[in-house]
Design goal:
two-stranded antiparallel ribbon; 3-stranded antiparallel sheet; globular; alpha+beta; 36% helix
Length: 102
Amino acid sequence: MTFRGNFMDLASHYIKASDEVIVKEMSSKTVLLNVEQGTYYSLNKTGTLIWSCSDKNKTISDIADEMVRCFSVTRENALADTLALAQELAQEGLIEVVENPA
């Protein structure tokens, strides 16, 4: 999935984990396995926070707010980083960015 137009408009959207992903969370990172592709991915602490907020009825904007609370980062950078990771994860088929959390 590639975001078209101004991807900042997606701040009010939600992240939904794909059913084709197996997740193993460790102390400071998360390992994802895309079952369909057989590919592993590793997320650092920031990515782990973003992943852990998926499927919890939090918008991308809410997730950015959580990043501001947990890390020394500005709201603008947190939102940009959250959107960038969401785009990467969506392109790899690990998540969907949806308008409604249901």
